[in-house]
Structures are given as structure tokens and as C-alpha cells.
Amino acid sequence: MTSIFPTQSVSIGSLTLSGRVVLAPMAGSTDRVFRTLCRAHGASLCVTEMVSADGLTRRNRKTLLMIAVSDNDRPLGVQIFGSDPVILADAARIVEDAGADLVDLNLGCPVKKVIKRGAGAAILGDLPRLRRILHQVVSAVSIPVTIKMRSGIRTDQPVVTEVARIAQDEGISAIALHPRSLNQGFSGNADWSLIAQLVEHCSIPVLGSGDICTHLDAVRMVRQTGCQAVMVARGVLGNPHLIRQINAAFGGKPIPLGPSPLERLNALLDFYDLNIQEYGARYGVPRMRTAVNWYIRGIPGAAAFRRTISTLQNPDHVRHAIRRFRDQAARLPISDSGGESG
């Protein structure tokens, strides 16, 4: 196997990453606990879930906790969203003062409550305002500023090249593209040809995102588009091992086997314990109920286990239920995923 890249490092402005796999911002998912697991598997940069610029400038306590930076959680990008250039610039200063390594601007969220505020992917429908936002934010901070965008409002009207020109003019350090339109939501297929188009028009790094579920997807994306790094999202939920597989593929190394049911449930236990440590029993137990589904997909008895977990409140009872289900899984035949399933 040959290496996909001449070197594993990539620079985003003044920040040099040790690898080319970045954890995407995902609402409700990429908190410090999940970032910790992804770093252990080789994520070279993690980005927080999107944070309200309005909440930051109002010094909302819960919002400020979302951007807390710790020494073992770096390099860290903080993604902010909003619609007002001045407020976004003020929020970026707060992010820099908190110790983050870069500011990422959300130009991709398709959620209605965000779009109604003129934020997220809605900004792609007003390119003059986009230019003002980028100018204000880049001027406000000394750390790199990046953007994560969709292809446009409508599938048949992409604005990739226009945004590339504005972003480079205004000093953006890198662009991550999820090549679906706002109107697509998460339906259909990501149009990787738009990533290639962006690469062609950019002198700054381009991160490809969308439909990366296996290491083979990541390799195909790089070869088809020429992007300098990949940003993984839903494919790593419950499977941060995918990052290790992609790194191996990029480096021309043997691909680690996908985790067995036993390994997945051991990972779930680790994730659970980290959540309890971070949030306590009151918040840690409810937060785990969605995450459980990521780890148990396809394991015999998963439906019954899911029902059991949904009724438990005591953290020790939850831990015992996970261990019991894990011990059942340990008796299952080991499946060889060969690293292909991600």
C-alpha cells in the first residue's frame, strides 16, 4: 500500500495539524467526552458543536461552558453561528480569549430555527453579507478562521466558487465543504464533484465532508477531489475507530479490523463512564440514551437492551446492564469486518 499524501501534516493558517482527519462539529454530539474518544483514535483536530454567537456575547453560562478549553483537548476549533457581523466578531474574540486554536463559522446548518434567524446555510443566499461577516471576524482575531459550508441554497444553484473567492479575499484559512444544498438536508448523495471544483479555485486547504462511512470512502474522496483533508461526521458516531482506519489508509499502512461487538460494547462502557464523570448521574444518564444506539446497531438482542436502558435512572444499574449485554456479546462469533464497514 502506498501513502495517499506526501506528508501526514497539513497547515491551516498558523496551525499545523499532525494528521488529515478532522472531527466535524455535530450538534449534541461533539462535546468534550466524544472529542476525547476521537482524539484517542487519531483525530488531528476536533471542532465543537455549533455555539450561538448571541449566547457567547451575552455571557450565557451554559454557552460559555461549551467553549471551555483543556490541555488534553487540543488543537480545538470552536464553531460559532449567527447572522450579525458585529456579534459574530465579538463572539470570535471570546473564543480566542478562551484559548481555542481556531474559529470556525457555520455556513451549513439546515435546521429551520437557525435558518429563520438568517444564520447557518441561509447566509449562502446573501453573499454581500457573507463578505461582511468574514471581514469582521477575521479582523477581530489572530487565530485562524475557517468556514464549514454547504453547496448553496438550491441543488441546481451552487455557490461554491463564489464563496471560495470571497473567503480567500477576506483571509479565511481553510474551507470545509459538505456538498449538499440547504434544501437537500441530509437526503440524497453528497456531490463530491463540487469539492473538486472548490479545490480547483482555492489556494487554501479544502476539507471534504459528506458520506464518509468507511476508510475506502475517505480514500475515494481524496483521489476524486484532491482535497487536503477529510472531515468525518456521522460515520464516527459510535465508531471513532473509523478515524484510525482512515489514518492508516492515508499512510499506506494495514487497515485495522473493524471493532467486534465485544469491542464496541467495551467502548460504550468507556464512553458511559466518561459521561458520568463529565456530567454526573443527573445529566450523564439521559445523554447516553441516544449514544447507546450508535454502539449496539446490528448486535443480536439490541432492541431488548435498548428498551431496558430507557427505563433505568441509577448510573450503577445502567453500567450493570451494559456489562451484562457485553458479556452476552462476548459469546457471539467474532465477525471479521476487515476494516471495510467503518
Task: Give a short synopsis of this structure.
With 342 residues, this protein is of the alpha/beta class.
Shape: globular
How large, in whole angstroms, is the Cα Rg?
A: 20 Å
- Given the helix and strand composition, which structural class is it? alpha/beta
When the domains are counted, the total is 2
What is the mean pLDDT? 93
The end-to-end span amounts to: 19 Å
The SSE string, one letter per element, is EEEHEEHHEHEHHEHEHEHEHHHH
Total number of beta strands: 11
Q: Regarding CATH, which class of the largest domain?
A: Alpha Beta
Query: Regions with pLDDT < 50 over 5+ consecutive residues?
Result: 335-342
Biggest β-sheet description: 8 strands, parallel, barrel
Strand order of the largest sheet: 3-4-6-7-8-9-10-11
Under CATH, the topology of the largest domain can be stated as TIM Barrel
Which percent bin holds the helix content?
A: 40-55%
Portion in beta strands:
5-15%
- In DSSP terms (H or I, runs of 4 or more residues), the helix count works out at 13
